[in-house]
Amino acid sequence: MSESTFFTTPNVDPHEIDKFAALADRWWSRDGEFRPLHDINPLRVRFITEGCGSLSGRRILDVGCGGGILSEAMAHQGAHVTGIDLGEATIGAARAHAEGQPLALDYRVVSVETLAEEAPGQFDVVTCMEMLEHVPDPESIVAACARLVKPDGHLFFSTLNRHPKAWLFGIVAAERVLKLLPAGTHDYHRFIRPAELACWARHHHLEVQGFKGLSYQPLTRQYSLGNDLSINYMMHCRPSIG
């Protein structure tokens, strides 16, 4: 991937778009297929606020926002949130749920690469959560996010580690045994090691501030933040100085 080409090549897997579009009417069902996203959302917001402080008044971009679960939570904290996704149906679900709420929310069907050409350096915070493992060229997403954030801003990414435990717990257990996610939600070969994600970040002039892992306890059905990055993990970055 080169910076001269990543903005002109469509970085989308139509199968992934169709897969989530088929579930669009169930994004906000807390007992449905997206229950794990609802369950981990407070932890995602906590990781973000611990990294950058109060979200009130911040201009935030949520890349791959899906039905708006994270976008709405950040808007409820006083942020001005732009959520982008390439799924028309999922953006429709996000808009429908936000309708009538007094929130500073704007949803757009646009790629992050296109938006990076339109509005470079315009966002205080950029989030890209549970999205990198669903695109053909995840480094292109990281590069575009780096262009969109302000020089003194913050970026937050999350994905799954290409580690045997992630295959065992993220696919076999979560999709086939516990049925936490629909079968086929994830492709192990698209999982990303923390070292790989950190390398892409540094290549695009970002400094890694820290990592946190997400763990799940099946007996209590609760998630927690910790230092185990072998399954789900989140990364906080800031633009390099100088």
TrEMBL record:
User: Which SUPFAM superfamilies does this chain map to?
Assistant: S-adenosyl-L-methionine-dependent methyltransferases
Could you list this entry's UniProt keywords, alphabetically sorted: Methyltransferase, S-adenosyl-L-methionine, Transferase, Ubiquinone biosynthesis
Query: What EC number(s) does this enzyme carry?
Result: 2.1.1.222, 2.1.1.64
Descriptive protein name: Ubiquinone biosynthesis O-methyltransferase
Q: Which HAMAP family match?
A: UbiG
Q: What does this protein do?
A: O-methyltransferase that catalyzes the 2 O-methylation steps in the ubiquinone biosynthetic pathway.
Family membership, please give it: Belongs to the methyltransferase superfamily. UbiG/COQ3 family.
- Please state the gene responsible for encoding this protein: ubiG
Give binding positions for S-adenosyl-L-methionine: 44, 64, 85, 129
This enzyme catalyses: a 3-demethylubiquinol + S-adenosyl-L-methionine = a ubiquinol + S-adenosyl-L-homocysteine + H(+); a 3-(all-trans-polyprenyl)benzene-1,2-diol + S-adenosyl-L-methionine = a 2-methoxy-6-(all-trans-polyprenyl)phenol + S-adenosyl-L-homocysteine + H(+)
Question: Is this entry keyworded ATP-binding?
Answer: no
S-adenosyl-L-methionine as a keyword of this entry, yes or no, is yes
Q: Which GO terms describe its biological process?
A: methylation
- What Pfam families does this protein map onto? Methyltransf_11 (PF08241)
Task: Note the superkingdom of the native organism.
Answer: Bacteria
* Residue ranges occupied by any Methyltransferase type domain in the UniProt entry: 61-157
- What molecular function does GO assign, one term? 2-polyprenyl-6-hydroxyphenol methylase activity
